[in-house]
Amino acid sequence: MDGAANDTVEYDGSDLEALTILKNYQNWIFARVAPWLGGTAAELGAGIGSFSALFANNVVSLDAIEPSIALHARLQQAVGGLGNVRVLAQTAEGWLAGAAPAHYDCVVMINVLEHIRDDAAVLQGIFDALKPGGRLIVFVPALQFLFSNIDRQVGHFRRYERPALTSVLNGAGFRIADMRFFDMLGILPWLVMNRWLGKTAFNPGLVGLYDRVGVPFTRALESVAAPPIGKNLIAVAIKP
Predict the structure, then answer these.
(1) Distance in angstroms (rounded) separating the CA atoms of residues 19 and 207
(2) pLDDT in tens, the chain (240 residues)
(3) Where do the DSSP E strands lie in the chain?
(4) 52: buried, middle or exposed (CB in 10 Å: 19+, 13-18, 0-12)?
């Protein structure tokens, strides 16, 4: 997702295709972000629209922004026919270059910020595009010790530690309303399969099994108390 300001990029989205079977996982993420959605919204890195239709049902309008040429047609097919959705083929930088100041009520980035080389600059641009009181919702891979070949393959520049994510959000001017780890149980399979064994593709059978068994169990645990560590971080940041 890193590219020239107004250019689309080459990204085949094979990892997104492999993860479409993660229905429980996607519903879990959506349940965490849904209370913060509303008004005029933008989704950066909308991919193939896995979340876009869900978001569209919870906002007045949605700009679904995707820089990948390969994914744009899929995104258009998935949500382009919805009356309150506008599909844009732009990078985050390109979109921000033309975004009206203080226009959006919320911006969502699900597994996107880690793809952007200059995350601080993009966050500053999002801050400017949000209305006062507007929300930025980010979901990112966590724990740098989990950084693996598959992270490199899909274009991740980093996995976030909690202090680093806090610092870059605060540096852009945001006040953090909520930040927590997500998917504690997912650390072990990621560490074994992707870090230690060096896998560079997702095994559909194992992914499906984790979604059917591991996700409901972990979601139930994390609904009782926020986990002390997790495979991902989810944060809601407010523009004062």
Answers:
(1) 8
(2) 333 333 445 555 555 555 678 899 999 999 999 999 999 999 999 999 999 999 999 999 999 999 988 888 889 999 999 999 999 999 999 999 999 999 999 999 999 999 999 999 999 999 999 999 999 999 999 999 999 999 998 889 999 999 999 999 999 999 999 999 999 999 999 999 999 998 888 888 888 999 999 999 999 999 999 999 999 999 999 999
(3) 40-44, 61-65, 85-88, 104-110, 130-141, 175-182, 232-238
(4) buried
Strand partners for 1? none
Contact 8, 67 (CB under 8 A): yes
Number of residues in the chain: 240
Angle between helix 162-171 and 119-129 (nearest 10): 50
What's the whole-model pTM score? 0.91
* 3-state SS string for 129-157: HEEEEEEEEEEEEECHHHCCHHHHHCCCC
- Separation between Cα atoms, residue 10 and residue 236, nearest integer Å: 29
| Rounded Cα–Cα distance for residues 90 and 67 (Å) | 4
State the chain's maximal CA–CA distance in angstroms.
Answer: 46
Compute CA distances 87 → 66, 122, 126, 166, whole Å: 8, 20, 18, 30
